[in-house]
Amino acid sequence: MVERPSLTAARLPALAAPADLPAIVLARAGESPEEPALFYPEEMDLRWRSWRALAAQVAAGGEALSALGLPAGERVAFRWRPEPDAVAADLAIQAAGLVSVPVVASGAGAPPAGAAPGTEAAAWLLLPGEAGPEEGGPVARLPEAVGPGRGRMAGGGPQPPPPARPGGAWVLDGEPPEAPGAPRRGAVLGAGELRARARDLEERLEHAVAGAAAVLSAGRRPPGCGDREIALGSFDLRYADGRTFLAWALASGAALVLEPDPRVLPGAVAWARPTLVAGEARALGELGRRVRSLEAERPRLFRRRSRSSLPFGRLRLLLVLGTGRLAVDDVAFWAGRGVAVVRVGP
Q1: Distance (Å, rounded) from C-alpha 125 to C-alpha 100?
Q2: DSSP string for 20-72
Q3: Quick one: which of 22, 203, 19 has its CA closest to 96?
Q4: How far is residue 229 CA from its own chain's centroid?
Q5: Rounded Cα distance, 152 and 210, in Å
Q6: pLDDT digits over 201-256, tens only?
Q7: What is the pLDDT of residues 130-150, one digit of tens each?
Q8: Which residue in 313, 321, 312, 315 sits closest to 342, CA to CA?
Q9: CB of 52 within 8 A of CB of 152?
Q10: Cα gap 179→122, rounded to integer Å
Q11: Residues 174/244, Cβ–Cβ less than 8 Å
């Protein structure tokens, strides 16, 4: 039997390093500049952004925010959707020693003037091409990523100015307001807590994979993974579980596939063939139905000759986000195929 490399042995030392997430991205840009960091759909193609390009955008965004002269720890809002520019904006805010406040827009148009409702944000960081508010508080703009997904950082690349203190992230507490129209309650997760959440999730994934691997006859690392997880996620940074997932993906060095639309997650999984999928229970339930349908269509002889008994050849982890739960039958179905189910939130 070929032993599968341990997740913890390969990645936990990096997860334990005392650095914030922007610093981790900058470090990875120095170590593996052209390695893909983020994948994202664009029209009918799947494009990618390297660690170098992501780090350059984060550093430039941090400089733009520092020019506003905001006190350390102030909250800065930005429009959130699982896309690479939004990930860069989130990290740029933290790199400037500020608190990131993701806001999900209800429709197209400029972001609202002033603070995002219920967040007490002091400023906005606009994404590339986004129109600014006609009036309101300070506004900075995130520069576009350099190059066609690869980018360049001359002379080792720009570095954001050292923040007075590490930045953080604002999250909703998950409970709706008691009165209609009342502001949502939330809390700030500091850099240390984000790193602790990433370490905790990594350890839970390691334990879950060890148990699920016993179902497989070979007990080996899925083909095509190397030392990186290929993680496909449709997640919301307004909530702690989405924050935890992104922190883990960046700190562990996973190749992160961003899916903005949770409704098409099953199809995205079949296309990208990840090792890990993170999404809400409804989307993961639909993914289970898709796998059942595919198995019913495949001849038994073909199933025996496939490269791996894992779904799509290498899927081995499902991360449940949100408040929903997978049905017991679904959990048993995945377990029988060597796929561990891990709940990220409470």
Answers
A1: 9
A2: -HHHHHHHHHHHSTTSEEEEEEETTEEEEEEHHHHHHHHHHHHHHHHTTTPPT
A3: 22
A4: 12
A5: 39
A6: 999 999 898 877 655 544 444 444 457 899 999 999 999 999 999 999 999 999 99
A7: 887 656 679 999 999 986 444
A8: 321
A9: yes
A10: 25
A11: no
